[in-house]
C-alpha cells in the first residue's frame, strides 16, 4: 500500500471488558505503513475530504472507502491457541480423553509434518483458512519438526498473518517416531527456529517465535530447565503450553513431578511463567494458582470448544473468576482439539459454557455477555499475547488489523442479518451470534488486505 487508506462509516471496538464503543459516521485514516493515524467520531460525509486536507492529505495520496448501511469495521480476531498441524484433523477423536487422543489421533497425524512438502501444503491451506475467518493474529503450535515450523513462519509472513510460531518441545511420553531425540537436539532445534524467525522478520513486525513446551508430560526436567534458560537470556520471547486441562493430564503430571503440588509451581520452577506466557485451558485452577497467575501476569487462552470436545476436561473453565481478578484472558480455537476454526464459534461456545458455569456456581459466576465475548476475541486476546500496544482495537497509534463486516448478502443461502428497523447494536449482536465468514468481506493486517 502506497497511499493512505481511509474508511468512512461505522466502527465497533472494545475499549475495555465492559466498554464497547460504537462509532457512527466515523473516519479512520491508515498510513501506508499500516498504522492508524487519525480517528474522528462523528463527521458528516461532505466534510471528509476537507478534514483530510487539514491533515495535509490530498488526492491521490489517499483512497477513501465509504461503507454502506449494514457494513462496519471491527478489530481483527486474535486466536491465542491454535495447532497448525491439526488443521487436517479437525473434528476427529471427539469426546476422547486427552492422552488417548494424542496417542491415537494426533501424534500419528502430526508425524506427517516430517515431510516439508506436506507441511507446506497443509500450512498454506491452514493460514488461508484462518485469514478467511478473520483471524488476523494466531499463536500457533507447530509440530515437533524444525523444518516444518520454519515453513509455517515463512508462510505466515508471505500471506500477511500476524503470528507466533513455535516448534513443539517433546522428548518423552510420545511414540519413538514422533519425539525429540534428546534434550540437546530439542533445544538446538529451538534455537535454530528462533534464529530463523529473527532472520525472516528482524523487527518482529508480524512473526515471532514462541517457546512451546507441549506440556510437562512430554518434557523431561532437563528440557524444561533448558527452555527456562532460553527465557532468561531472551525475556521478550512469548511462551505457550497446555495447563491444567483435564484430570487425566493433571494426575499424570503429578506422578511425573511428585515434588510439585500444582502446575503453577512446576512451570514457575523452570522459569516458564512470565507476563508473556500463554496458558491454554486452565479448566481447573485452585485459589493458590489463581493468585500466582495474577501476580506473574500470565495470560489464559480460553478454549471453550475443545474444553468440551477433546481432552476430558469437559469443563466450563472459570472465565468469570479470571476476569474478576483481572487475569488476562483471550479465546483459542484450539483446532484440531476443537472442531472449528472460527473465533465466532469460540465466542458463542464461550457464552454457552459461561451460562453452564453460572448454574454450577449457583449464580456466583455470571454468564458472559455479547460485549464480553467480543472483548475476549479482540482486545482480551491482544493482552494475552502482550500485543495490546499494537493491536486489539482501532485506537490511534495501533496497527490496522481489522475486518470489514457486511451484514447483507445477495448470495442465495447466505443469511441476511440486516432488517430496515435494526440499529447498529442489533446488527452487531446478530453478526456475533449468527454471522459467519461470508459476512467477513475484507481482512486487513497492518493495513494490508489479506483475505484471499
Ligand atoms: N496437550 C498436549 N498436547 C495437546 C494438544 O495438541 N491439544 C490439546 N487440547 N491438549 C494437549
Ligand atoms: Fe491445544
Describe it.
The chain starts with a strand and ends with a strand. It has 452 residues and is an alpha/beta fold. The protein has two domains: 4-75 and 393-449, Urease, subunit C, domain 1 (Roll); 77-384, TIM Barrel, CATH 3.20.20. The strands form four sheets. Strands 1, 2, 3, 4, 5, 16, 17 and 18 form an eight-stranded mixed β-sheet that branches. It has a four-stranded parallel β-sheet with strand order 6-7-8-10. A four-stranded parallel β-sheet has the order 12-13-14-15. The longest helix is centred in the middle third of the chain and has 18 residues, at 183-200. Strand 17 (440-445) and strand 18 form a beta hairpin. Helix 12 crosses helix 13 (370-384). The chain contains 14 helices and 18 strands. The relative contact order is 0.15. The model has no long low-confidence stretch (mean pLDDT 96). Residues 81, 83, 242, 280, 334, 337 line the site of fe (iii) ion (FE). It catalyses: guanine + H2O + H(+) = xanthine + NH4(+). Catalyzes the hydrolytic deamination of guanine, producing xanthine and ammonia. This is Guanine deaminase.
Amino acid at each position: 500500500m502506497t497511499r493512505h487508506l481511509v474508511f468512512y462509516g461505522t466502527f465497533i471496538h472494545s475499549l475495555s471488558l465492559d466498554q464497547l464503543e460504537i462509532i457512527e459516521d466515523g473516519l479512520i485514516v491508515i498510513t501506508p505503513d499500516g498504522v492508524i493515524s487519525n480517528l474522528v467520531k462523528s463527521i458528516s460525509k461532505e466534510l471528509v475530504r476537507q478534514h483530510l486536507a487539514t491533515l495535509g492529505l490530498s488526492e491521490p495520496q489517499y483512497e477513501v472507502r465509504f461503507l454502506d448501511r449494514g457494513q462496519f469495521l471491527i478489530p481483527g480476531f486474535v486466536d491465542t491457541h491454535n495447532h497448525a498441524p491439526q488443521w487436517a484433523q479437525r473434528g476427529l477423536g471427539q469426546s476422547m480423553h486427552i492422552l488417548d487422543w494424542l496417542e491415537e489421533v494426533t501424534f500419528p497425524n502430526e508425524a506427517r509434518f516430517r515431510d516439508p512438502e506436506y507441511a507446506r501444503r497443509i500450512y498454506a491451506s491452514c493460514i488461508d483458512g484462518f485469514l478467511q475467518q478473520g483471524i488476523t493474529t494466531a499463536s500457533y503450535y507447530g509440530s515437533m519438526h524444525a523444518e516444518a515450523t520454519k515453513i509455517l513462519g515463512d508462510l505466515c509472513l508471505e500471506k500477511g498473518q500476524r503470528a507466533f510460531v513455535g516448534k513443539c518441545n517433546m522428548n518423552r511420553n510420545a511414540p519413538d517416531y514422533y519425539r525429540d531425540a534428546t534434550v540437546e537436539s530439542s533445544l538446538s532445534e529451538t534455537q535454530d527456529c528462533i534464529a530463523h524467525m529473527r532472520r525472516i522478520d528482524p523487527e518482529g513486525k508480524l512473526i515471532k517465535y514462541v517457546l512451546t513446551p507441549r506440556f510437562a508430560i512430554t518434557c523431561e526436567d532437563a528440557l524444561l530447565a533448558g527452555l527456562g534458560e532460553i527465557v532468561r537470556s531472551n525475556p521478550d520471547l512469548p511462551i505457550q503450553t497446555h495447563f491444567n486441562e483435564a484430570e487425566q493430564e493433571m494426575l499424570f503430571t503429578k506422578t511425573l513431578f511428585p515434588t510439585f503440588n500444582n502446575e503453577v509451581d512446576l512451570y514457575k520452577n523452570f522459569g516458564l511463567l512470565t507476563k508473556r506466557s500463554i496458558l491454554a485451558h486452565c479448566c481447573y485452577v485452585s485459589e493458590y494458582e489463581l493468585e500466582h497467575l495474577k501476580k506473574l501476569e500470565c495470560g489464559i487462552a480460553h478454549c471453550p470448544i475443545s474444553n468440551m470436545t477433546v481432552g476430558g476436561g469437559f469443563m466450563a473453565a472459570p472465565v468469570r473468576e479470571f476476569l474478576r481478578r483481572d487475569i488476562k484472558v483471550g479465546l483459542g480455537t484450539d483446532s484440531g482439539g476443537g472442531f472449528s476454526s472460527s473465533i465466532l464459534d469460540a465466542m458463542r461456545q464461550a457464552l454457552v459454557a459461561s451460562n453452564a458455569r453460572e448454574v454450577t456456581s449457583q449464580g456466583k459466576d455470571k454468564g458472559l455477555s455479547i460485549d464480553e465475548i467480543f472483548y475476549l476475541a479482540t482486545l482480551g486476546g491482544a493482552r494475552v499475547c502482550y500485543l495490546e500496544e499494537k493491536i486489539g482495537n482501532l485506537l490511534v497509534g495501533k496497527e490496522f488489523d481489522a475486518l470489514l463486516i457486511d451484514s447483507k448478502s445477495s448470495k442465495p443461502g447466505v443469511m441476511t442479518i440486516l432488517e430496515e428497523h435494526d440499529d447498529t447494536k442489533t446488527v452487531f449482536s446478530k453478526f456475533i451470534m449468527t454471522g459467519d465468514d461470508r459476512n467477513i468481506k475484507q481482512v486487513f493486517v497492518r493495513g494490508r488486505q489479506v483475505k484471499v
